[in-house]
Amino acid sequence: MFETLKKAPVDKIFALLGEYRADDRPQKLDLGIGVYKDATGNTPVMRAVTKAEKRIFDAQTTKSYVGVSGNRGFCDTIVDLVFADRIEGDRITSVQAPGGTGSLWVIMQLLKRAKPGATVWISDPSWPNHYPMLELAGLNPQYYPYFDPETRSVKFDEMLAALDKMGPNDIVLLHACCHNPTGANLTPEQWDQVAQSMKRTGAFPFLDLAYLGFGDGLEADAYGVRKMAQTCPELMVAFSASKNFGLYRERTGVVIGVAANKDSANIVFSQLANVIRASFSQSPDHGAEIVRVIMDDPELRAQWEDELKEMRDQVLTLRKNLAGSLRKLSNSDEFDFVEQHRGMFSLLGLSKDAVEKLKKQHGIYLIDDSRANIAGIPEHDTDKLAAAILDVGK
């Protein structure tokens, strides 16, 4: 049996993590793996999460199954967080899935049933897992223009021109906020134009919402997904609680479908539940129940929002400090985009050779496209990192 197989390609992010762990230099720095880190370099358990877990531990009396569609209180509170009554509730349906990746996978299976072999357009560049997941799901991934490496900004005119040429057989995967890997986001005015284009052409919106609250705040970061839902008759959203609740290992996500009417939403729900039952039966409950407890308690919710703001402000400060150090040491504004971008990541615009030199000469680990996890930057000494970046050049 196994003689027909070849060794699968190694995921470059986790391969890099292995190299980093094997490096015995005390001043090494991991800017590759996409997790939030505090000023001490730790990925903390949020205080609101700890309190919620204690309540669950004290109150839970069974580990029986929750159900195929998952924790309904969790799904409902995330739907409210994302849309906040901006659209009719009977158009919306939701199911729980294992993290943002699991949510994406369930949606891809649904899309394959709705339009077998459909083309799904993803941004150039996009999260590295989007393309292989779409291929594995039997869909046809293609790229639309998005990021200009020269200006370090969105190539919006080219993006919009590409979208305007699409039609009802096209699916467009959009990063709802905090674009990964570039950090370059659409403005509200640009979201308005994207929504109008997709309404006009009939292309189907598919939004990846992995960083709600990590960019400019919960309300600002939800603008794009809300505008799309208010403008287009149908869409799908993959939500992740990994970053904004710090629940990386708990695999906590939600699939949200927005349909034209209640009857269509019910059909979508039935298909999503059927996909889940045939795939992994149902999702793990612990992370979902943590979020439900937090969101249902005004005091815990307020504490969570405060902690989320602390994390967001930390990343914004790191962006400002690193851009300032690069500006000071290079005597140029070439890297000012680092401060202007949002979310956990920025593409630094370094060549693969420069990234390799950063690793070998300075113990600084990035994936080879030079995506930097801004949250991994040491707060106390951005000058040292800036000097290393400038030392290896482009």
Over the alpha carbons, how many angstroms does the gyration radius reach?
A: 21 Å
Number of strands: 13
CATH class of the largest domain: Alpha Beta
When the domains are counted, the total is 2
Describe this structure in words.
The chain is an alpha/beta fold and 394 residues long. The protein has two domains: 2-45 and 302-392, Aspartate Aminotransferase, domain 1 (Alpha-Beta Complex); 65-296, Aspartate Aminotransferase, domain 2 (3-Layer(aba) Sandwich). The protein is 46% helix and 15% strand. A seven-stranded mixed beta sheet has the order 2-10-9-8-7-3-4, with helices on both faces. A two-stranded parallel sheet has the order 1-12. A hairpin with a 4-residue loop joins strand 5 and strand 6 (153-154). Helix 4 (99-114) packs across helix 10 (262-279) and helix 6 (156-164) packs parallel to helix 7 (188-201). The chain is globular and about 60 Å long. The mean pLDDT is 96.
Helix and strand arrangement:
Elements: H1 12-22, E1 29-30, H2 47-59, H3 72-83, E2 92-98, H4 99-114, E3 119-124, H5 130-136, E4 140-145, E5 147-148, E6 153-154, H6 156-164, E7 170-175, H7 188-201, E8 204-209, H8 218-221, H9 223-231, E9 235-240, E10 252-258, H10 262-279, H11 286-296, H12 298-330, H13 337-340, E11 345-347, H14 352-362, E12 364-365, E13 371-373, H15 382-392
Parallel strand pairs: 1-12, 3-4, 3-7, 7-8, 8-9
Antiparallel strand pairs: 2-10, 5-6, 9-10, 11-13
Helix pairs in contact: 2-11, 2-12, 3-11, 4-10, 6-7, 7-9, 11-12, 12-15
